[in-house]
């Protein structure tokens, strides 16, 4: 996957890439929670609930970082994605997660979303974990960072923020 990420999301891809070594993706057991560092606040971990009858898989939230829990509420933990109340969020996540599950490749996206009646932009990276020998994706690791409009414009404009400056994601 050759993709340019912001300085905020790049460490997530770099970690995933280092854990996979020469495999298509890392094993779930390769991931130690402390290796996420500050990204843990923006991370989610899901298990794949695959069906044997050719139905699309569902996903269960195993861990939800504190920033995402603040944004979406504590109800995500131990919830199935297919049962989320927010229809737009449910469809977006199921589409993204099923793509990662089927391809065994990370999926990156960015967009806009209203939260608490305020506009935010976000970027998200979802990465597969599993048994590369059998080709089975068993878990997903996601990182989603939300920005105010001003932060997002500064981060993604052609006049990029200087290397010594940082933008604190929301």
Looking at CATH, the homologous superfamily is PAS domain
Largest sheet, in brief, is:
5 strands, antiparallel
Strand residue percentage: 25-35%
Helical amount among residues, as a percent range? 25-40%
CATH classification, class level? Alpha Beta
**Largest beta sheet: what is the strand line-up?**
2-1-5-4-3
> Low-confidence parts, pLDDT < 50 over ≥5 residues?
158-170
Could you say which overall geometry the principal axes of the C-alpha atoms support? globular
Number of distinct beta strands: 5
* Number of separate helices: 4
Radius of gyration based on Cα positions? 16 Å
Whole-number tally of structural domains: 1
CATH architecture: 2-Layer Sandwich
Tell me what the structure shows:
It contains four helices and five strands; from the N terminus they run αββααβββα. It is of the alpha+beta class. The protein has one domain: 2-Layer Sandwich (Beta-Lactamase). The longest helix has 17 residues. The C terminus is likely disordered.
Quick structural summary:
This protein has helices at residues 10-20, 66-72, 87-103, 149-156, and strands at 43-49, 58-64, 107-115, 118-131, 136-147. The protein is an alpha+beta fold and 170 residues long.
